[in-house]
Design the sequence.
């Protein structure tokens, strides 16, 4: 039994036990001449955070020094983005969101997945410009101040890299949900409807496509159908209530809800209207889907219905047989999620899960299902259906239709194996 007369000591792993009342009072007395801090933790982008004041000292009337930007608890220091694969070149990088550690549907800004092709530019918003030209009546150059003066919109949407979930070639048994599905995040995006800016420049009737170009060293560029631009495209300057992070396109990015993530051009500097696609590098040699007959599908924009169980999932463990709640995320670029079914026997039988509010179009939806584990082996799967009636397919069905060389747009059903001892791993 712990000696309640002394402040608690860290355990073997360095984690302090919860303080006793006597320890709290002792800490309050020691604060009379200053502020006591505890160990460093994780910052918003995964770096070591400065020491922070224990929350229990706030009740003692002592002076408190809070960091100017709030930080996670040091006990959450393992919840960070992680690179999935070594970058092909030093300036390119990608890191995944730790889906298995998150709650609800919103991704914190510091954990939103990253994917960039040529580094992250440092852009002064006062010097940044967006030009809109091409098949327009009035070519215009906008400053950030100009854009901020337009009426704003705020909507919650997911963003997913089309290379998320490398299911065509298989995956490692040790992979977690962060490694299989982590190039996926969901945020509230705030900015100006692209249709508002197009009204200002007066798009001509023959304009059917828009070239969107970024200010990074790769000049990342994609062709966007005019119908999408006029529907729900956003010129976003804020994410989850604050201005965009540099790796998310500060000071301005395009957000195309439901489309593959590379089309939501970051560091947006140019929009050019034309009468046909612009056939950029990123839609010819890249981001096309190679089919078994040697041809390639092009302009496969929409991310189709998909889901993943985040608990229990790879790298986690069930402590003992008994009650658990299976939980996960489902989404569709075509609209809203209508139903999610869960199997605990590898797809032989299915039960319908509960969808947790809010259920929004082109947005992550959280699902839940009560489950009593009997201690034996189990294979957990989830299957999403969207409001168009599209049902998430099995991996075998995708391979039969598209072969193994596609590379992008894998949305097959994910399987997690639960061992009799409780360990959970990816099914290869």
Sequence:
């Amino acid at each position: 039994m712990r000696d309640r007369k002394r402040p608690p000591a860290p355990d073997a792993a360095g984690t302090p036990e919860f303080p006793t009342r006597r320890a709290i009072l002792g800490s309050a007395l020691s604060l009379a001449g200053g502020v006591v801090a505890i160990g460093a933790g994780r910052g918003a982008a995964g770096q070591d955070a400065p020491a922070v004041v224990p929350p229990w000292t706030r009740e003692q009337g002592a002076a408190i020094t809070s960091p100017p930007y709030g930080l996670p608890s040091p006990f959450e220091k393992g919840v960070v983005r992680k690179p999935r694969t070594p970058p092909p070149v030093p300036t390119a990088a990608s890191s995944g969101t730790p889906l298995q550690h998150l709650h609800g549907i919103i991704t914190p800004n510091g954990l939103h997945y990253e994917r960039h092709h040529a580094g992250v530019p440092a852009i002064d918003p006062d010097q940044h410009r967006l030009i809109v030209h091409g098949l327009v009546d009035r070519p215009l150059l906008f400053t950030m101040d100009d854009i901020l003066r337009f009426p704003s919109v705020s909507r919650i949407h997911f963003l997913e890299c089309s290379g998320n979930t490398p299911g065509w070639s298989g995956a490692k048994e040790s992979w977690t949900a962060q490694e299989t599905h982590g190039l996926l995040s969901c945020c509230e995006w705030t900015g100006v409807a692209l249709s508002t800016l197009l009204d200002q420049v007066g798009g001509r009737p023959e304009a059917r496509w828009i070239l969107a170009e970024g200010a990074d060293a790769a000049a990342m560029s994609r062709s966007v159908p005019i119908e999408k631009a006029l529907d729900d495209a956003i010129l976003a300057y804020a994410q989850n209530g604050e201005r965009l992070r540099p790796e998310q396109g500060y000071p301005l990015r395009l957000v195309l809800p439901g489309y593959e993530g590379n089309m939501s051009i970051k560091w947006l500097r140019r929009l050019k209207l034309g009468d046909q696609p612009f056939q950029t590098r990123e839609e010819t040699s890249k981001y096309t889907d190679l089919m078994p007959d040697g041809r390639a599908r092009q302009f496969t924009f929409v991310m189709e219905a998909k889901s993943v169980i985040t608990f229990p999932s790879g790298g986690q463990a069930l402590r003992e047989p008994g009650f658990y709640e299976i939980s996960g995320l489902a989404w569709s670029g075509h609209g809203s999620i209508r139903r999610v079914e869960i199997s605990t026997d590898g797809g032989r039988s299915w039960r319908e899960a509960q969808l947790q509010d809010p259920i929004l179009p082109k947005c992550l939806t959280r699902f839940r299902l009560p489950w009593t584990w009997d201690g034996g082996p189990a294979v957990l799967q989830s299957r999403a259906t969207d409001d168009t009636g599209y049902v998430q397919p099995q991996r075998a069905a995708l391979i039969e239709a598209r072969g193994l060389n596609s590379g992008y747009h894998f949305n097959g059903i994910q399987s997690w194996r639960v061992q009799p001892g409780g360990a959970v791993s990816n099914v290869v």
